[in-house]
Queue: 2 jobs
Job 1
Amino acid sequence: MPFPIQKIAAFFSNHLCCFFISLFAVSWITFIYSPLVCAVSVDIADVPLDVQLQASAPNIMFGIDDSGSMDWEILTNESDGLFTIGNTGYEYVFDNPGDNLYTSGVYSYVIAGDNRRYWKSQWSEYNKMYYDPKVTYKPWHSDMPDADPDMVRSHPMYAENYTNLNAAYYSLSFGSQIIKDDRDSTGITKSDNWVLYSYSAAYGEKDSYTSVDGSTFTWIPTIPSTETYEVWVFNAYYDGNDQNAEYTIVHAGGVATAYSDQSAKGGEWDLLGTYTFNAGTTGSVTVTRKDHSTKGVYTNADAVKFVKVTGSVNIVNAHYHVYSQSAGKPYLVNLDGAITYYRYNDNGDDYIEPGELVLDGSPPADIVTGRSYEQERQNFANWYSFPGTVGVAVGLFVRLLR
Ligand SMILES: [Ca+2]
Ligand SMILES: [Ca+2]
């Protein structure tokens, strides 16, 4: 007996409804109940259903490294996180307060002497371990006192190992400078026989050289006022350069002669001496190609700078470097009884040389923290004694999760 048309319609109506209900149920992990509503075949899921039903709860794993490198004061993107100068990778910024884990050989290198002028080792953007003025450093626990701002403990629990934050880190003269380059359009006179050369390691990426005895090259600065200046000479490096290049300095007191080993001191500023120059253009520096036993293949003429010695800066241990985006320059901030700012005019070698620091009484706003001197000094001391390393990192991470 044929089905009445009403029953056929009811069958499709009910079963199609169940079919769509089942599909919906599958997607929401209630597939198991759908056969109770109606029996309709569906696609089998590609993913095991128990995985869908029992997804793992989120887990956080803290891996805390207590290996020897945790004692280091340097963390850069360089190989092994070190700070490399020449062929040496350095691990420590400050003198050993007595508790360095490594005191000799590899892993123990402390940046010392003139190498401390490589400023990026004391800049938190490069050395992530260094003091960051944007951060407020606090004792590890609210019951612990702030660090002593002068004689700061290396480890807050032990009094026997400390660093004097007032002690000198390094000293340097500062002031203004006048640089005369061999390619300047004025203030240069020279004899024939100088070859013009383009060389990336030269000052201004160009220099001049000669192999003809008796050739002379003279730099004539325009001196704004009669002052005492340091005279430095720069020569592009070449191992065949004159090892005893002769310079004649015409100054306010007469004429002086100085010598530079252009081979050993190539690619860096070499101090010829300190002289007083009269205002104007009466002073000069001349290099002469001389015939002598160590004259090398070439005598070089590249650049000379005159640094007005207006003072010196005693950079104490409590100091840091910061970069001003608005000024487009790095600054040295010295915490030596006041917050003292020095603008850093680098010649491109990331190494602070005489004349490159200029005292700045009106530093750009983007590097001023707003802390008083005492507050900044306290923050620096807290950073040193309560290092912002593993403990702080974990604490900040947990705080972010809350
Ligand atoms: Ca040059
Ligand atoms: Ca420099």
Note: The two ends are 71 Å apart (CA to CA).
Job 2
Amino acid sequence: MFVCGPTVYDYVHLGHARTYLAFDTIVRYLKFLGYKVRYLMNITDVAERIVQRAEQLKRDPFELAREYEVAFLEDMRALGVTEVDRCERASEALPKMIAQVAGLINRGFAYETETGVYFEVQKFPKFGQLSGQNHEELSLRRLELCSSKRNPEDFSLWRKYEKGLAWDSPWGRGRPGWHIEDTAVSMAAFGEAYDIHGGASELIFPHHEAEIAQAESLTGKAPFVRYWLHTGLLNVGGRKMSKSLGNMIRIRDALREHTAAELRFYFATVHYREPMTYSHTGLNDAKRRLNILRKNLTAYSEARTGEDPRTGGASATLAKHESAFKRFMNDDFYTPGALTVLEEFADELGRIGQKVDQHSKANLEAGFRKMANVMGILS
Ligand SMILES: [Zn+2]
């Protein structure tokens, strides 16, 4: 599984938190089912936005990127994002990107101009399929304004820059395009095809369309990725939470007021693909529900055990809740349903604590915690 990581030019906000928590939960659930998961994330430390911000601040772009990469990893740890196996920086995969760009030129999918190397979208008829756009619609979307391109929909694989953040290549000094960064990083780790690619829904077009076009044109094999998972936007007051709109809440600021478990519970109340509106009412409601769940669990843990060895009854109770939990989660990771199962389970535990014998009691609690841990709502 590969998920598009952040472009490290500023602090990450709750919109990012929602995305990375969703994928953390998805991996936890896959492991709960017994799958082995290799989860790779890239760190975009080569990008126009980093160069621009560094110029504004009169800073070195690499230093700036490292600083925000450290901040990002701190924020992820604070949220309890534990499942990423490896983060790979774009800047460390330059030879792989250059090899892919050269390969695309050799195979006739890309061409060089005085400003860079571009992918010729018309050569890849599937372009637009992931986002459900036809060729007419695509021709109206101008991806990158540049007069040297053959067609407005072509996107850059390499941009020529003499100075600043730049590397040597067969096409002179310059920087890779953003889309080829991720294709190079993920294919170097997983080969020609892999199972899951995730990211925010705003990345479907053009970023993920471009990734498919690059990879499948290079290998001649399809599909490049078996499942695409996209998280919905986090809105505030009817608009997307973003740095440019000035309505963002940094993760580190949110964590001063709310615990990671509270934020995880809150985000899990909406299916990851749906857009979500951030609100205090919603967050407070999630906190209230989490408190009740915890009180029930504490009451259960502290209750004196009964003499009645209802082991059979206890395992049936666990099986009932576990199958309901799986039914929701198997339906495209429907966390809102899974939360209600955990609440009902906790409620039942709160009522039966004094009735079960010690052995059953421990089993039930372990079973409950295993499911709650998928959602990350107890830590
Ligand atoms: Zn990406």
Note: The first strand starts at residue 2 and ends at 3.
